[in-house]
Amino acid sequence: MKIAVAYKWAPNPQDAAVGADGSVDWSRAKPAVSEYDPVAVEVGRRLADATGAELVGLSVGGPDVASPMAKKAALSRGLDSAVVVADDALAGAGTTPTGRALAALVQRLGDVDLVLTGDSSVDAGAQMVPAVLAGALGWPALTDVVAVSGTAGDLTVERAHAGGSQVLHVTGPVVLAVAADAVVPRVPGMKDILSAGKKPTEEVPLADLAGWQTAPVEVVATAGPELKVRKGQVIDGADPAAAVTALVAALRADGVL
Amino acid sequence: MSEPTAATGPDVEPDFDVIVVGGGIAGCVTAYRLAQAGRSVVLIERGEAPGSKNLSGGVLYSRVLEQVFPDLLTSAPIERRITRNYVQFLNATSSVGIDYQDARLAEPVNAVTVLRARLDAWLAERCEEAGVFLMPGVRVDRVIREGGRVVGVRAGDDELRAHVVVAADGVNSFVAQEAGLREKPPTHHLAVGVKAVVRLDERTVAERFHLVGDEGAAYAIVGDCTLGVGGGGFLYTNRDSLSVGVVLRLDDLVKRGLRSTDVFDHFLGHRFIAPFLEGGEIAEYGSHLVAEGGLEMVGHIHTDGMVVVGDAAGLTLNTGLTVRGMDLAAASGIAAAKGIDEALTSGDTSEAGLAGYRRELFAGFAGKDMETYAKAPAFLERTRMYEEYGLLLGDVLHSVFDHDLTPRRHLSQVVRSELKRSPVRLRDLLSDGLAGVRAL
Amino acid sequence: MSSTYILVAGDARISALVAAAPGATTAVVVGTRAVADAVATSGVGSVVWLGEPGDAPLEAFAGPVADLVAAAAPDVVLASTRPADRVLAGAVAARLGAPVHTMASKVEVHDGAAEVTRAVFGGIARQTLRTAGPVVVVVDGGTLGEGGSAPVEEVAAAPAPTVRVVETRAAERTQVDLGRAQRIVAVGRGLKAQEDVAVVEGLAAVLGAETACSRPLAEGVGWFTKDRYVGVTGQHVQPDLYVALGISGQLQHTVGARAAGTVVAVNTDASCPYFAEADYCVVGDLYAIAGALTDALR
Description:
The complex is a heterotrimer.
Chain A: E1 2-6, E2 9-10, E3 17-18, E4 24-25, E5 32-33, H1 37-51, E6 54-61, H2 68-75, E7 81-86, H3 95-109, E8 112-117, H4 129-137, E9 141-151, E10 154-161, E11 164-170, E12 174-178, H5 190-196, E13 201-203, E14 217-223, E15 233-236, H6 240-253
Parallel strand pairs in A: 1-6, 1-8, 6-7, 7-13, 8-12, 9-12
Antiparallel strand pairs in A: 2-5, 3-4, 9-10, 10-11
Chain B: E1 16-21, H1 25-36, E2 41-45, E3 57-61, H2 63-68, H3 72-75, E4 78-90, E5 95-101, E6 111-115, H4 116-130, E7 133-136, E8 142-146, E9 149-155, E10 158-167, H5 174-178, E11 190-199, H6 202-208, E12 215-223, E13 231-237, E14 241-249, H7 250-255, H8 260-269, H9 274-277, E15 281-291, E16 302-303, E17 306-308, E18 317-318, E19 323-324, H10 326-346, H11 356-363, H12 365-372, H13 376-380, H14 388-401, H15 411-421, H16 426-439
Parallel strand pairs in B: 1-2, 1-10, 2-7, 4-12, 10-17
Antiparallel strand pairs in B: 3-6, 4-5, 4-6, 8-9, 9-10, 11-14, 11-15, 12-13, 13-14, 16-17, 18-19
Helix pairs in contact in B: 1-4, 1-10, 10-11, 14-15
Chain C: E1 3-9, H1 15-20, E2 24-30, H2 33-40, E3 46-49, H3 62-72, E4 76-80, H4 83-96, E5 100-102, E6 104-110, E7 113-120, E8 125-132, E9 135-139, E10 152-154, E11 163-169, E12 183-187, H5 197-207, E13 210-213, H6 215-220, E14 241-245, H7 251-254, E15 262-267, E16 280-283, H8 286-297
Parallel strand pairs in C: 1-2, 1-4, 2-3, 3-10, 4-9, 5-9, 12-13, 12-14, 14-15, 15-16
Antiparallel strand pairs in C: 6-7, 7-8
Helix pairs in contact in C: 3-4, 5-8
């Protein structure tokens, strides 16, 4: 029996440089395992250890997803093995092709009844891939999951719900998007990274996946972010009372206070 | 289990032949060369990816790195080939410069500008291809010593052991200090660098600096750019951006009660600098420590089971006209790899066994240059360099070019009368000139 | 004439979706009849209701919703960013092979092709994207709308039989609606201890403001409830005054507060990114400044 964890190898847009015309320079932004995916891996690791399942990482994206660094970074967080599709056609792919390609990978893997994902990706933050992935598989999806117990086919799932929580019983295959604070993920140590280098990884050619494409999306226009013009007035706070006097005066002058 | 000896290293079977801590130029070159020689090497880098902790870039004197990577100029992410060197004395209202352009600097290529975030990632990739085990995202907490020698490193709960540990972790090398090899450098050997990368489009860069193709310019600036603080300013052209910044002697900065950011802002807003930057967007900004102590900073660079390379070994040179570090880092990496490989072959990785590194380093240009410029830091501490000469030059030229209807005088008379008005005394000029000739 | 399907899962606050929808609108409602009735008076053209959910979670209707929308073949499918709504939208996108657009500001249909203007890469840039075929757009739902009384057609659907709600624990307190707050005092990692939340609350009290936080304070340490987290995957707010205390200004946070009228950022680090997006940048200790500001306004 296998538990799959879908993860993303992506840069943080915070580190990218954006021109006034909206062009994005990613050279300073280094890809990493997306911020909240390690939480999903950790939840999966604990569940796999409790049930004797194999924990398999799945990722689709551009060629760097298959780089030794990307594989080690993912595997060092507690996966047993990884299966990736690394192809230019999937570099920067949108939600739907990504979700569909992951679904095709799950079907190819077989013997999987539980797919875990993180809450959101660091680069897009759309929180949509688990839903598309489940939709493509014809499985239900649950988000904001804070705890999972039992075995696939007989899972008890707790999730955050409208400020409170909800406990669900799941008797079939399911995609669970794990809340960012469900568990505290491990920080991989040197031994974890060393052993990650020896774990099996498989690279699946994109041609082996069917039905992942969507209608082509054409970029008609690009622009910088929609930002209000801010005053950017610096107030030295070394003397807090004086700083506050200046701030309050300015806010009153602006009619904000 | 018996205690390891200084010569043979850890009794336990080590995880690797060599552990390199730090994925900058020195660390990557050391690791790459050793992997090429068939050694098992792990490269530990605290950033999640090599280059991710590295700010902007600079001028790389490229020939030494070409010895390691013959395809450097064609495959590495090089920004521009420097064919134009400009030395500028900056005053509040005047500026005097020496513009040195030379086609010979382009063929063969001597210096290039690089952005380290790109170059370091490229170097790490080459290391990985050569068989180096990359370990990013790991911060080394401790150096493990047994039987009086370094046998490995510790991070969190994990230990890694090797015959030799290479400290390549930068100017304030924690690893070298941990091993007791180097004292924390005194502040007068340290400078603070404030840098920014300003994005412009490729055409604007070429136009503003009169560049053709991938040619580039490097400006070394002294005087009013630092508000008189010991140090200087620089400006380099990248492909579609400028690296611009100041390097300030930490002790002088503190003494004058100035903040590095104030000096930096003054520099960027200077009437003779601002036009270069006009319309640009600041893409990166930050500050870091630079060692500029010259040979004095290079002390102990190897011990039982360990060598220190690059900035960590104090291998930086501020000659007044050029700030060098990257080429020396590469040279120390080459020398260290050779010394370590020989030590591993002979089975003696003690201080004596690793002495080949130091011999190799000082036999090459890097060590020779460090000796050549041994007195440069002390010379550059003479504050007149930063204020008065520029003013003097400006005033002399003003007298020559400002046709104010007074009769012209011979240049020698002008110089003498300006010298009289300037606080610079003739004997200062002689003394500084002599010191400069000796130091540089 | 173009057509838009609006997906609704248990929450009738869809005014922003109705406002953004091009062409004729049909709402597909999963949830109780009361929700379907509320949607019917919020300005949509018609309502399709999938029947009482019983003990099935609303997400279990994703399959039937996808079937229904695929059969109707609309040009645009809209859904709110609320959790169950996203699951419905994802299933529809997977079925249609349609791209999903989030953070969209404009949705148009020209000659059968959908054109969406949206923020990309978490908000660092914008793009206008054209697709020949349907698109799924997921944006903030808005509030309860008013208008018309559309007919409600019941199409009873069978939810996935493998998921059932066993227990629901209601919120211990009412959720705050930061989207409507006029003033907000937000705090980030600069806050040193949980008891210091009182400092923030003290300032918020004299300003008549709601408190808010950056992600780590809600999800990392849990000093704030998640409904007070402002950011790309949290609340998007538009107050007149936004005071950011000890928030460095990572993009993932500032995107959630970009619509604010006036932004005051307080940080010890003069080079923090937030200062590039603030009207007033106070370089100083958040405790000292917040304390002095509270005293000054009391």
